[in-house]
């Protein structure tokens, strides 16, 4: 499909270029022919004027037929000049056709590449989403079918089935919420406008949201962030810090601690979230911000659940804020996620509409 669209766009480029080129060629031909005829007319007028004044002409001119009311240029020569002009213009237009065809094909590819990338991204998104949705749906369907065929199903068994079904439904709801959140940030990444915010308040709000999960594991969250104003989206940055704190808690053992701290640099602020968790293998680090990516260790060593969307969302939010995110980690030693954000953004409004 991409190749077909590229060829069609190239054809349109060529059609437009050749229309312009042919229009100019016709205009140039008419101007040159007009100038040629004007030159012939001037020469004829000069000869006639000289003849009237009795000016002597060499015998060879009379021999060539250059008498009054005739042109100094041979009519056949004039026609030959016109034919040569046409041939030159055809050659020039042929060259333009070949060169513009090559450049048009290249430019058509560059024009369509963002559209192709977007379509590929959508296709991957749909494929990944369908795959992740199928797992809890299959589990839910299988459990119901097995218990439906059980003629000796008791009330207690029915309650267990309902409890398990609710658990699977909760997983589906969690997945759909994350998918919607990711889609929201993807479609608005070039439209972000910001307001002045207190970094300390944003972090405190994120900690309040994540505190119940930390209490379940008897974990301590240490907040060492600076009280500094930055430009950004209130909901977007709060989601960013919540995701990183939630990720740190999920993959850390009980009674561990998570530290969030910040450091001001020239025109930017660095926020770090450090944990004492299972860490990330070196080979997995380049992929952890990909959608639905979970390391083998995360799947086997923990019961954290999740679908591998959190860090992908965090990366999108960081990109919206013209920042960067990276991680340093060692297996079984923990990880440190560091976000670098500019303190001042170029666009700012009171309340970002797409996060409201």
From TrEMBL:
Enzyme class: transferase
Keywords: Kinase, Membrane, Phosphoprotein, Transferase, Transmembrane, Transmembrane helix, Two-component regulatory system
CDD domains: HATPase, HisKA
The keyword Kinase is annotated on this UniProt entry: yes
A GO-annotated cellular component: plasma membrane
InterPro entries in the record: BphY/WalK/GraS-like, HATPase_C_sf, HATPase_dom, His_kinase_dom, HisK_dim/P_dom, HisK_dim/P_sf, Sig_transdc_His_kin-like_C
Domain Histidine kinase, residue spans: 128-345
GO molecular function: phosphoprotein phosphatase activity; phosphorelay sensor kinase activity
Catalytic reactions of this protein: ATP + protein L-histidine = ADP + protein N-phospho-L-histidine
Protein name: histidine kinase
Organismal lineage: Bacteria, Candidatus Gottesmaniibacteriota
């Amino acid at each position: 499909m991409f190749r077909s669209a590229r060829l069609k766009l190239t054809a349109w480029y060529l059609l437009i270029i050749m229309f312009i080129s042919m229009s100019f060629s016709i205009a140039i031909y008419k101007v040159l022919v007009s100038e040629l005829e004007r030159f012939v007319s001037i020469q004829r007028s000069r000869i006639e004027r000289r003849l009237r004044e009795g000016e002597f002409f060499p015998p060879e001119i009379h021999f060539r037929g250059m008498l009054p009311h005739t042109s100094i240029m041979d009519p056949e020569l004039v026609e030959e000049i016109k034919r040569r002009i046409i041939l030159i213009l055809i050659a020039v237009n042929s060259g333009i056709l070949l060169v513009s065809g090559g450049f048009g094909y290249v430019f058509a590819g560059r024009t369509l590449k963002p559209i192709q990338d977007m379509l590929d991204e959508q296709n991957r998104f749909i494929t990944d989403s369908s795959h992740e949705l199928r797992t809890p749906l299959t589990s839910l369907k299988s459990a119901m079918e097995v218990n439906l065929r059980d003629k000796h199903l008791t009330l207690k068994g029915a309650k267990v089935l309902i409890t398990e079904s609710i658990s699977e439904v909760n997983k589906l709801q969690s997945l759909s919420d994350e998918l919607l959140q990711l889609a929201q940030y993807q479609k608005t990444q070039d439209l972000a406008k910001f307001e002045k915010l207190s970094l300390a308040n944003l972090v405190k709000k994120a900690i309040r949201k994540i505190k119940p999960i930390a209490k379940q594991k008897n974990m301590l969250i240490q907040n060492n962030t600076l009280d500094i104003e930055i430009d950004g989206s209130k909901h977007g940055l709060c989601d960013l810090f919540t995701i990183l704190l939630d990720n740190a808690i999920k993959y850390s053992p009980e009674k561990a601690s998570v530290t969030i701290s910040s450091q001001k640099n020239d025109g930017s602020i660095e926020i770090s979230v450090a944990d004492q968790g299972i860490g990330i293998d070196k080979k997995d680090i380049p992929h952890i911000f990909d959608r639905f990516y979970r390391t083998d260790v995360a799947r086997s060593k923990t019961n954290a659940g999740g679908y591998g969307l959190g860090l992908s969302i965090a990366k999108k939010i960081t990109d919206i804020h013209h920042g960067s995110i990276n991680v340093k980690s060692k297996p079984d030693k923990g990880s440190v996620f560091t976000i670098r954000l500019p303190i001042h953004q170029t666009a700012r409004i009171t309340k970002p509409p797409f996060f409201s």
